[in-house]
Amino acid sequence: MTETRPYHHGDLRRTLLGAAAEAITENGPAALSLRDLARRAGVSHAAPAHHFGDKAGLLTALAAQGFGYLADELDRTRAAGGGVLEAGVAYVRFAVAHRAHFAVMFQPELLNRADPELLAAQDRSSSALRDAVATVDRSELRGADARIAGLSAWSIVHGFATLWLSGALPPDLGDNPEDAARQVIRPLFARG
Amino acid sequence: MTETRPYHHGDLRRTLLGAAAEAITENGPAALSLRDLARRAGVSHAAPAHHFGDKAGLLTALAAQGFGYLADELDRTRAAGGGVLEAGVAYVRFAVAHRAHFAVMFQPELLNRADPELLAAQDRSSSALRDAVATVDRSELRGADARIAGLSAWSIVHGFATLWLSGALPPDLGDNPEDAARQVIRPLFARG
DNA sequence: ACTGCTAACTTGACAGTGACAAGATTGGAG
DNA sequence: CTCCAATCTTGTCACTGTCAAGTTAGCAGT
């Protein structure tokens, strides 16, 4: 990652990414405006283009950052001795804590899919995901092919996170996403 | 719909919804342009506003249509005697067949959440979903609270559909979403 | 110190867009 | 036949993303 010290502005790149995350958290990715970000950062309207090329470039950088954060979160959970269930909860925790990043990470039409930085970050989080699933006791996932089991786990946590963030889940689940996730995910792993 | 060419264009509303679905399927919701839709339909740039108010109105109508289609699909599967697993597969089939609708249905920031037509359609598909889950044999979902079990099922199919559509799943899953879904969903229901 | 050099930013312009207001056209009810 | 309300058009505005060209700042080498 190219670190810049305060030239004219300071580090505009990081500032813009932060402002973008904030704006997306508030109004979603569709409403994001580069000019608005520039305004928030106190620079001219064309400044963002210099760092990210275009809008897709900015969102790609955000997505890459998101995959990095996700990998961090999963690694941290694993280091703490958590199993698959806790990795799943960590996935949801990440999605809720960084909803702007999450909202962009799985919308390829918004991104430069071939961006090397993005691909690297995706790779890192894929590995972290794979490692998390590898810790599963075979009996927990009832004899299924490990590869399929991993996809089942990924699907259920990804689905829960998406539905939670979209507000589609019933309100009687409470307002703690991690607890709710734990309940909903458990049936995949609990023994019969 | 027979081939008509009315000067006042007959059913613009339906035509625009169709064009919108097509455009979103191609380029995603973010790239959608009302003026482009108007061009495709051969009307003036301001015509869509009359039927939908604004962009959010159009997307809301699309989402409502999508919830209707989803309810239809689930009802059809249930009428054919399918269980929860097949309902799940039907959910995925719907998402893939109507990816434009699906892409919009769970992005509240693009919609008028309070639109009565939308709420009614959501209600209908919620009921269909609930009915589908209600057919589950208690032993299939291993003693979990039925309410939680339903959310688990919803999460796993929704997550699978989302990941499939975003192209995030590994390519060795094949190119048949229904077969792949069946494999990935099964671990939730299979007996220990 | 001064000379270039390059990255970081600005200024200015252009085509497209969503939204609104006001006018035109139509089918149909009375 | 008249009139009206729904449908659609025209014109306009502020705003957006992107590009081209210019400006400023840090820095290395002499």
UniProtKB/TrEMBL annotation, chains A, B:
- Highest taxon of the source? Bacteria
Name of the featured protein: TetR family transcriptional regulator
Q: Which Pfam families match?
A: TetR_C_33, TetR_N
Residues forming the HTH tetR-type domain are 10-70
Q: Which UniProt keywords apply?
A: DNA-binding, Transcription, Transcription regulation
Which residue ranges hold the DNA-binding region?
Answer: 33-52
